[in-house]
Design brief:
This protein has nine helices and 15 strands. It is α/β, with parallel strands linked by helices. Among the domains are: 128 residues, Rossmann fold (3-Layer(aba) Sandwich); 98 residues, 3-Layer(aba) Sandwich (Rossmann fold), CATH 3.40.50. The protein has a nine-stranded mixed sheet with strand order 3-4-2-5-1-6-7-8-15, with helices on both faces. It has a four-stranded parallel sheet with strand order 12-11-13-14, with helices on both faces. Strands 9-10 form a two-stranded antiparallel ribbon. Helix 6 links the parallel strand 11 and strand 12. The chain is globular. It starts with a helix and ends with a helix.
Length: 347
């Protein structure tokens, strides 16, 4: 106990000054944007930004997919811009024209790759400079509207609607600036947001401090819950009904920001989770990892290895004897009508 206390005090001693320095950088950066010293440029079509104020696991990718599908259902031609975190390429890369699908996630990033395979007729471009990527998207595909993935901090590109996601799992410690906590910028910067979405409220009960802080922002709020799609998919696109794993033993693994929702949803299916392994977000698997997972699953008597869509796309080329299937996460909003009211002006 004494060792743990000393270690925590040492971490505070190291991380707090770094967080203070980071706060200074963020403060001046935002001040320069507020007073026009840094330029914010606009694209020729409306832009909806979907982002967060903290790192890891708020559920941006399912949110981007939901908004894309909703706008498409209203007859809109939708395009998506993303940074393409973790990709090996740089500059503007066309992930998909909406029809032809990418074959390598490493060239475009795991999340844009996943979106490209989930959505139809939605062109996607990755670029670390979102305005440049957006202009290419407009020139090549002429979308009616563009969704900016993970765009809250990217103030160089103007947006017409700012949707910010907040993880209901957040603790008081999380709400300190990086690297001391998880905040990418101070909480009061949520004044720039148009609507807040408290995510995965069926998995994590939001702490009282979080509810209070959200209320104090004065921004409109909705919440979402997660559920599993009724179908599981393998890397070869073989599909089985979700009910097939009921009363079976499964070994689960993932490399996502917040795996608790994934685990909690599987616990509700009636299956037995006989083991699990959690990797860091955006982890790149190798042959040794898969061999280890296979051995652990076999030793625990598992019938299936179960993972997430985001993980499944990284497993091409690996062959093991135990079947691997991925679950797809769906979102439900409460109230959904409130979210649609904010999207309605763009359709």
């Amino acid at each position: 106990m004494q060792t743990n206390r000393i270690f925590k005090e040492y971490l505070v001693f190291i991380l707090f000054p770094l967080a203070l320095f980071y706060w200074g950088l963020i403060y001046w950066r935002n001040l320069f944007y507020n007073f026009g010293f840094f330029v914010t440029r606009s694209l020729p079509c409306p832009v909806i930004s979907i982002g967060n104020i903290s790192v890891g696991g708020t559920g941006k990718t399912p949110m981007v997919e939901y908004v894309s599908r909703y706008l498409q259902s209203k007859g809109m031609h939708v395009g998506i811009i993303s940074r393409g975190y973790g990709r090996k390429t740089t500059g503007s890369v066309i992930v998909t024209d909406g029809i032809t699908k990418p074959t390598s996630w490493e060239d475009v990033g795991d999340e844009p790759f996943m979106l490209a395979h989930s959505l139809k007729n939605v062109p996607i471009i990755v670029d670390e400079l979102r305005y440049r990527g957006g202009m290419l998207l407009v020139k090549k595909f002429k979308p009616d509207i563009i969704i900016l993935d993970d765009g809250f901090q990217h103030r160089s590109l103007n947006r017409d609607l700012d949707i910010v996601l907040i993880n209901s799992k957040d603790t008081i410690q999380d709400h300190k600036l990086l690297p001391y906590g998880l905040l990418r910028e101070p909480w009061y910067h949520l004044s720039r947001a148009d609507i807040l979405v408290l995510t995965k409220t069926n998995v994590h009960k939001p702490k009282a401090f979080l509810i209070r802080k959200i209320k104090e922002t004065g921004r409109p709020k909705i919440r979402n819950t997660t559920m599993l799609d009724k179908t599981l998919r393998s890397i070869t696109n073989n599909q089985i009904p979700l009910k097939d794993i009921k009363n079976k033993k499964i070994y689960i693994f993932s490399a996502i920001g917040d795996p608790d929702g994934f685990i909690a949803s599987l616990n509700k299916t009636g299956t037995t989770i006989c083991g699990k392994q959690i990797f860091t977000d955006h982890y790149i698997y190798n042959g040794m990892d898969l061999k280890g997972l296979e051995n652990d699953a076999k030793n625990s008597g598992a019938d299936y290895l179960i993972t997430t869509e985001k993980d499944l796309i990284k497993l091409g080329g690996f062959k093991i004897k135990i079947p691997i299937y991925a679950v797809k996460i769906r979102l439900k909003f409460h109230p959904e009508s409130k979210l649609k009211r904010y999207l309605q002006p763009f359709v």
